[in-house]
Amino acid sequence: MSIGAVALNLSLEDEKLFASAEKRYAAFADRSEIGRPVDVVGECVRNGSESVFASDFESARVQVTANSVVFRGVKNEYALDSLMRMFLSWELLSHNGFLLHAASVLRSGRAYIFVGKSGAGKSTVASLSPAGSVLTDEISLLQRNNGEWRAFGTPFWGEFRAAGHNTSAPVAGVFQLKKARENRTKPLDGAALLRALLPNILFFSSKTEDHQRLLEIAGAASEEIAGHTLEFRKNRRFWEVLP
Amino acid sequence: MNSAPNGVWQKNPALAWREIDDETIIISPTESVMHELNDTGSFVWKKIDGRRTAADLAALLAENYEVTREVALADTTALLAELASRKLVVAADGEAH
Question: Is domain B14-86 classified as CATH 1.10.10?
Answer without folding.
Answer: yes
